[in-house]
Amino acid sequence: MSVLLSLQDVSADLGRTRVLQGVSLNVGGGEIISILGPNGAGKTSLMRAALGLIGATGETRLGGADPRTLTARERALRAAYLPQRPQSIWPIKVEVLVALGRFAHGAVPDRLAPADQAAVDAAIKACSLSEFRHRGMDELSGGEKARAHLARTLAQHAPLLLLDEPTAGLDPAQSLGVAEILEAHAAAGGAAVFSTHDIALAASVADRVVLMKAGAIIAEGAPEEALTASVLEAAYGRAARLERVGDTFAAVFDR
Ligand SMILES: Nc1ncnc2c1ncn2[C@@H]1O[C@H](COP(=O)(O)OP(=O)(O)OP(=O)(O)O)[C@@H](O)[C@H]1O
């Protein structure tokens, strides 16, 4: 199994806040890993450190290289990043936004080579956006916009997906669609790391969950083994448990 991302004892500060504390994580091809944890736990910071977007101590390797030494293009060929709440500043068409995902392959959005066009079409289809592809980004609902940004990320065809809350704002059926996209990516040998507050979805989809609190990983492993009641309570400060429901899960928080 190829190692696509490796963090060893990574710590980082933003301003006066220690946002990562001794984080170690290895991600190999074929894996789906979900990052969980309360607001402010460090999930976004972990992804940004993985990409070299924030300074950190320890050792970070993205596709075997220190991400701080990579050009934007080299980084984009290794990892596709979906930021939390991405913005599209211009009212560009959906298919043009998705084509921007091809920049690392040398694509120009209005003159796509066949391979770039095929990648754009496949990403639009996977994200159920075919009927919206000619619409402006300013003519979409919140969930449709989120899917367009995900499609841009997928069109990049990077082996590692780093997705910060890819299902935020999506309806349950669309969230399951994202889960199936991640499963297909992993089945093809890629890896997906995604953060979410949907514990049940994470447990259903991820091979491994990583639970963070205050910048540190407090539990990691197969969902049912890692997400014990005591660990969930330690993370969220409320009594909670993961329950199996058929072949999926529910996260139950006591009131
Ligand atoms: N630019 C910044 N300067 C100082 N502190 C920051 C900065 N950005 C984030 N933080 C702090 O870093 C910590 C981790 O933030 P991060 O965005 O990584 O959390 P998160 O787990 O992704 O949270 P959420 O679930 O709310 O998205 C938080 O305490 C946050 O307040």
Strand content: 25-35%
Q: What is the domain total for the residues?
A: 2
Number of strands: 11
Largest sheet: 6 strands, mixed
Within the CATH hierarchy, at the fold level, what is the topology of the largest domain?
Rossmann fold
Rounded to the nearest angstrom, the radius of gyration is 18 Å
Distance between the termini: 43 Å
- Major sheet: order of its strands? 5-6-7-3-8-9
Structural class assignment: alpha/beta
CATH class of the largest domain: Alpha Beta
Helix content: 25-40%
Ligand types: adenosine-5'-triphosphate
What does this structure look like?
Residues 5-239 form the ABC transporter domain. It comes from Candidatus Viadribacter manganicus. Part of the ABC transporter complex HmuTUV involved in hemin import. Responsible for energy coupling to the transport system. It holds the Pfam family ABC_tran. This protein has helices at residues 43-50, 72-78, 94-99, 114-126, 142-155, 172-187, 199-205, 223-226, 229-236, and strands at 3-14, 17-28, 32-36, 57-62, 79-82, 160-164, 191-195, 208-213, 216-221, 240-245, 248-253. A hairpin with a 2-residue loop joins strand 1 (3-14) and strand 2. By secondary structure, the protein is α/β, with parallel strands linked by helices. It has 2 domains: 3-63 and 159-253, Rossmann fold, CATH 3.40.50.300; 87-158. The protein is globular. The strands form 3 sheets. The chain has a 6-stranded mixed β-sheet, with helices on both faces. Strands 2-1-4 form a 3-stranded antiparallel β-sheet, with helices on one face. Strands 10-11 form a two-stranded antiparallel ribbon. Bound molecules: adenosine-5'-triphosphate. Adenosine-5'-triphosphate binds next to strand 2 and helix 1. Adenosine-5'-triphosphate is lined by residues 14-15, 17, 19, 37, 39-45, 84.
